[in-house]
Design a protein that fits this description.
By secondary structure, the chain is mainly α. It is 69% helix and 3% strand. It is globular, with a radius of gyration of 25 Å.
Length: 456
């Protein structure tokens, strides 16, 4: 028998990883990460609740209020750790949100007007109805500021709950929920920019506008390397922070300028890969690993360069940024913001506080009416059509799951009640209670109404 073996057969000491056994679509990868992120987020929220109601609470608060500063000559920026998390790390979260919005509008569920109609209408209903319910339930001006809190849906938690149902839920329903949540995020970004900005520094805002123009220029001249966008985006974040408009919006603005076009056609890439793989096999040397084979190393590097050229920068950044945001930044946000102290002696009064009640009713009932009710009207009026393989019963389940407003709701709560610890505590109590109710009811509803999908 010849000693020459195909390189894949020879290197039995380093078999191909299972990742090559199955081609996973970007949507499937997205859902898998959101599901895992939702479970991790739940764990971190529980940890924060335990710590906030234990003897560790004082250390917890001390750490969050520790000042951290950055100084360059006479310029300095000083914030508490809590502010660095909410204003700094969350800018990266909003950057990924911006990438998701742009991708969905260009090639996703929101690209086709016919497919996009229902999730857009449902998302608008799911924002307007809860906000209106909250506003009408409060007549105190200080409490009315929280009307934006029940507008948001936490996609990680909602997807995580649906994932527990497995094959009972059609993929089209899951895609509808994701598209709805992304439109929801866009609405929350607009609300934060317009309604939760109290004072404006025009000089800083004009500087931010100039920096955004630089990012647009980068896009137009075809700069594809992420570093220039991140450097200017960082300066944009500082300018937004100084302007009075919430700094995290710099993440969305930067994301919208990331190029979404390729520099290498798929046909040319296919030809390159075939040509390079022929060379790769031709330079195979028996019993010689890749580290000692300079020709094969060079071919692999060329292949990597080609992959980067056939991928869009938007696609590559969304893929690389999603994991650290989902598994690090959002859990850190939960640890820093979900710590709600529970005093059982006053729990009754907390749960009956106008802000708490308003948030619960608006998130649970408001989202149900806004998403399922408005969707029903749109379909009956012929404005939109149900996703293939779904029915109104399943849309009701999505309406319940829309009431899980954890991450973005808490974020807006921090903006709505700055410096008012009592109202913020009531808002967080309502958010946590509503998210639990919506998640449990939504899961049970879908479990009862959905039938297992038989795989053929």
């Amino acid at each position: 028998m010849s000693q020459d073996k195909h390189p894949i057969q020879e290197e039995n000491f380093a078999p191909l990883e299972k990742v090559f056994d199955k081609i996973v679509s970007p949507f499937e990868e997205f859902i898998h990460r959101e599901t895992t992120s939702g479970l991790l987020l739940m764990i971190c929220a529980i940890i924060a609740l335990i710590v906030a109601n234990s003897p560790l609470v004082h250390s917890y608060e001390h750490i969050l209020h520790t000042k951290l500063s950055i100084a360059l000559g006479d310029w300095h920026l000083s914030k508490t750790l809590h502010h660095w998390i909410n204003d700094g790390l969350m800018a990266l979260f909003f950057f990924v949100v911006g990438l998701e919005i742009k991708r969905e509008v260009l090639v996703g569920e929101l690209a086709d007007p016919r497919q996009a109609a229902l999730p857009i209408i449902a998302a608008i209903g799911g924002m307007v109805v809860p906000a209106s319910i909250y506003f009408l339930m409060n007549n105190d001006p200080s409490m009315m500021k929280g009307w934006g809190i029940p507008m948001a849906t936490d996609i990680a938690f909602a997807v995580g709950v649906i994932a527990l149902l497995g094959a009972r839920v059609p993929k089209t329903l899951l895609m509808f929920l994701v598209a709805l949540a992304i439109v929801d995020d866009l609405g929350a970004v607009v609300v934060i920019a317009i309604f939760y900005t109290e004072t404006i520094d025009m000089n800083a805002l004009l500087t931010a506008g100039g920096l955004f123009a630089v990012l647009v220029f980068f896009n137009r001249v075809g700069i594809r390397t992420p570093l220039p966008y991140f450097l200017v985006g960082l300066c944009l974040w500082v300018a937004m922070l100084k302007s009075g408009v919430h700094a995290t919006l710099a993440g969305v603005l930067t994301a919208l300028t990331i190029p979404a076009s390729t520099k290498f056609s798929t046909g040319s890439f296919s030809q390159l890969v075939r040509k390079l793989m022929d060379k790769f096999d031709a330079h195979h040397r028996p019993n010689q690993g890749i580290m000692r084979n300079e020709e094969q190393r060079s071919i692999i590097q060329t292949l990597e360069n080609g992959v980067h050229l056939v991928e869009t920068p938007l696609q590559r950044l969304e893929h690389s940024m999603h994991m650290p945001v989902a598994f690090i930044i959002i859990p850190i946000f939960a640890l820093a913001n979900a710590g709600v102290p529970i005093d059982f002696s006053t729990l009754g009064s907390s749960l009956t506080h106008p802000v708490t009640i308003s948030v619960i009713v608006a998130l649970v009932a408001g989202k149900l009416i806004g998403i399922a009710g408005v969707s029903w009207i749109a379909v009956k009026a012929g404005i939109a059509t149900l996703p293939a393989g779904t029915n109104f019963h399943q849309l009701i389940g999505v309406g319940f799951l829309g009431g899980i407003g954890f991450t973005m709701s808490i974020f807006i709560g921090e903006l709505a009640f700055p410096g008012d610890a009592e109202l913020l505590l009531m808002a967080k109590t309502g958010i946590l209670a509503a998210s639990i109710i919506a998640g449990v009811v939504g899961y049970l509803w879908l479990l009862k109404t959905a039938k297992p999908i038989i795989q053929k």
